[in-house]
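Pasting as-is:
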Amino acid sequence: MESPVIREIKKEDNVAVARVVRKVLEDLGVPKVGTAYADKALDSMFENYQRPRASYFVVEDGQKIIGCAGVAPLDNYEGNVCELQKMYFLEEARGRGIGSKMIKICMEKAKDYGFEKCYLETMPYMKMAQRLYVKNGFEYLDAPLGDTGHYSCPVWMIKEL
């Protein structure tokens, strides 16, 4: 059996990526408003990351996309900080070390882009995700940075690059 491959997003991945993100959010009971679920960019992720200092990756297992994540400059923030964005994995991808590999790839890309720190937002009940972030060097913040529009995500974390 082949190992999953992490690669940059292609235009033809847009539908599958949106499906993965929405499926994970629905499975977790995340609010549809004030989270990634409602983001206009969700249906055109390839196009959304065709800008300076932004990259988005997918995890492909066979012919199926089972996870995704990206980095881009933190919206509405004055400083050299990127955001780890829309990192989601279907249940079949979890517990296989793919999350740590994805974070490593995203952090290397962020360093290549010259960012000094990486920020993320998540939900309080996404405990497995938070453990993964802490294991990979993220620390909790007391308040959000920038303004991502994700007002329903009250857990904020940051990592020095």
